[in-house]
Every structure is written in C-alpha cells, then in structure tokens.
Amino acid sequence: MYKIIGTDGKEYGPVTLEQLRQWLSEGRVNSQTQAQVNGSTDWQTLGSLPEVSGPPLAYPPSTSSSFCKKPGKLQAVAVMTLICGIVNCLIAAYWLFAGLSIFLVGVLFTIIPAAYTLTLGIFEIITAAKLLSDPVKVTRSPKFVAVMEIIGILFCNFIALVIGILNLVFYNDEEVEKYFTSIRAQ
C-alpha cells in the first residue's frame, strides 16, 4: 500500500500497487509524483520505486478513482476558445488600424469595438490555457467568456457569436457539468 501527494498538494491513499500503475499508465500521476510506502516515513518519487515502474498490469479501468478524466467536449471548448481568442486579438488590431487610418472620426467609432474585442481575446486565451492544462485550472465552467463571445455580435463578430453559442451548449452538457462538480469535490 502507498500514499501519494497529488498535484493539488493533498495526500491520497492508501492505494494499491495496481492502482498506482494504472494511474501512471493513464497519466494521472507521473514518475515525479511523491509517494510513501506503507510503514515508511520517507517520501520518494514514483520513478524511484522499482515495483511501480515495472511493466504495466492488465486490469479493467477503475470507476472508483477520485480522479476524473477531462471530457472531450471540454477539450473542444478549450481549443475553440483559444482559436477564437487569437482571431479576436487580430480583429482588435484591425479595428485599431482602421480607426487610426481614418484618424479622428475613425478612432471614435473603432476604439470601443477594438477595446472590447481585445479584452475578449485576452480572456479567451487565458481561459483556454486554464482549460487545456491537465488538470484543469478552473473549478467552475467559465460561461461568462461564452456570454462575452455572444455579445461580440454587437460589433459584427459572427465568429465569436458561433463559438460562444457552441461553448454554452458544451458547458451545459451533463458530462462537462459532472466533470466540474468532481473537480470542486476534490
């Protein structure tokens, strides 16, 4: 039996050798994860334990694990949000360039769309980075970004509108909601 320290800094265990080897093969823990053998007071990396780093065992996936796999729809949301964030930053640069090229009159009519679109793009990139990380760095679905994307229609941003609607649909998916619930429970 073993105890481990998760990426969240919490202690988990006791867990069996088979569970540790399964988690290694699934990428839930890695060779640098701190572990303590039952009866020992020393913590060491999983990679330094010869019994853990041996050949993988054949067993069915565990359903009682405290870790939860990131749903594919959440990965899709992250990728769409990242792409939309990059596109929105480029659109904001265009708005600023167009406003400056027309100078006075253009600046008045382009500064608000440019500022909103740039802010949205930055929010999207930050949110996507948090969603793409493993484990996810947010505990609640960032629906506010999807709402901001939909509001982008006020500035004729049809790409953000479509991505925002898709993101809201995916955020409200039962599997994605369960994933965020399991993250909050850990």
Walk me through the structure.
The structure is a single chain. This protein has 186 residues and is an alpha+beta fold. The protein is built from 6 helices and 4 strands, in the order E-E-H-E-E-H-H-H-H-H. Strands 2-1-3-4 form a 4-stranded antiparallel sheet. Helix 2 runs antiparallel to helix 3, helix 2 (72-102) packs antiparallel against helix 5 and helix 4 runs antiparallel to helix 5 (158-171). The chain is elongated. The relative contact order is 0.12.
Give a nutshell description of this structure:
With 186 residues, the chain is of the alpha+beta class. The chain is built from six helices and four strands, in the order ββαββααααα.
pLDDT averaged residue by residue: 82
How is the largest sheet built, in terms of strand order? 2-1-3-4
Structural class from helices and strands? alpha+beta
Helix share bin: 55-70%
**Shape descriptor:** elongated
Low-confidence stretches: 56-66
Set down the secondary structure blueprint.
Layout: E1 2-5, E2 11-15, H1 17-26, E3 34-37, E4 44-45, H2 72-102, H3 104-132, H4 143-151, H5 158-171, H6 174-185
Antiparallel strand pairs: 1-2, 1-3, 3-4
Helix pairs in contact: 2-3, 2-5, 4-5
Provide keyphrases for this structure:
single chain; 186 residues; alpha+beta; 4-stranded antiparallel β-sheet; 56% helix; 8% strand; elongated
